[in-house]
Design a protein that fits this description.
The chain is α/β, with parallel strands linked by helices and 311 residues long. Helix content is 48%, strand content 22%. It folds into two domains: 2-111, Nucleotidyltransferase, domain 5; 126-290, Nucleotidyltransferase, domain 5 (2-Layer Sandwich).
């Protein structure tokens, strides 16, 4: 048995998982989950740099996570970074600051690696899934589509479109203008239509991960707080996504927060919901199954398999 911590440093959030790797049963047991909205990718789509304020938010977050890691007696830390750091010209500087100030080595994932690990994390622990299944991970800077079954991944792609990136590129206000909303929608039609033939076979069994999807599931059930038992495995219907999009695209950030969306996500939830709605509409997906797992669970699963290979 080994206790590890995995940290997923995304464009909008940084997520921590502390888990025990049980070699006897060849499974992982989640002990603690936490997330902080750090908006690391603010301005990266335009400037191709992570700004000093965002770097400081990341360092504060990693310092907090260091305390959790110590409190839980973690033996190994695995931190990974995705789209925002991947696209930034000053990525080496960011990684070095994290190492020197927080003592955390961050692995920079390629888009393909991110997609594969997200797939493994999203389906971890689930049995008897309808195959093939399609995982969609809507992040702040990118969206991954991964098609596969219980044996292997068949197709995968990392698309340079996410809730933060789409917001910064098209929406100058919230609610967005009709024109900017239409432009964003047209852009997404092109993006997803190009991938339709490769991934359409998984449309009857779609699994959605990350903050946008979980938020929509929470809103659909009118949950005041995060409740993993009610969110993990929830079937989110296309009609619910559409009705929530209709609300978000016509209301202010304050009104969205008052409706129950956390403040750090309220300004990008319209774009995130538009991404999911566009995907479901183009692929003809009537519903998606929500997974509260994702990349950090995939990294933990990779660690488990590595240790088992050494036994």
């Amino acid at each position: 048995m080994t206790r590890i911590a995995t940290i997923d440093i995304g464009t909008n959030t940084a997520l921590l998982l502390i888990a025990d790797l049980d070699f006897a049963s060849q499974t992982l047991h989640a002990i603690y989950n936490h997330q902080e909205i750090i908006r690391l990718g603010k301005g990266v789509d335009k400037d191709r740099r992570i700004n000093p304020e965002a770097i400081e938010r990341l360092m504060n977050c990693l310092s907090l996570y260091r305390k959790f890691i110590a409190d839980y007696g973690v033996e190994r830390v695995c931190a990974v970074a995705t789209s925002a750091v991947r696209d930034a010209q000053n990525r080496d500087e960011v990684l070095q600051i994290a190492k020197s100030r927080c003592g955390i080595d961050i692995e920079l994932l390629s888009g393909d690696d991110e997609a594969e690990l997200t797939f493994q994390g999203a389906i971890a622990g689930w049995q008897n899934l309808l195959e093939p299944f399609l995982v969609i991970d809507i992040g702040g800077g990118s969206t991954e589509l991964i098609l596969g079954d219980s044996h292997a991944i068949r197709e995968k792609v990392s698309l340079d479109v996410g809730s933060v990136r789409l917001t910064e590129r098209f929406f100058k206000s919230q609610p967005p203008s009709d024109e900017s909303f239409s432009q964003a929608h047209t852009f997404l039609i092109d993006v997803f239509s190009n991938e339709l033939s490769r991934f359409i076979s998984g449309r009857e069994s779609v699994i959605g991960v990350a903050g946008t999807v979980v938020t929509l599931a929470q809103q659909a059930q009118r949950l005041a707080d995060f409740d993993n038992d009610k969110l993990h495995g929830y079937r989110l219907a296309y009609s619910s996504v559409q009705s929530q999009l209709d609300f978000f695209k016509t209301h202010s950030i304050d009104e969205i927060i008052n409706a129950g969306v956390e403040s750090g996500r309220a300004d990008v939830i319209t774009a995130g919901t538009l991404i999911l709605w566009s995907f479901m509409r183009i692929f003809g997906a009537k519903q998606i199954t929500v997974s509260t797992q994702g990349l950090r669970y995939g990294v933990a699963t990779r660690e488990l398999r590595y240790h088992l290979s050494k036994l």
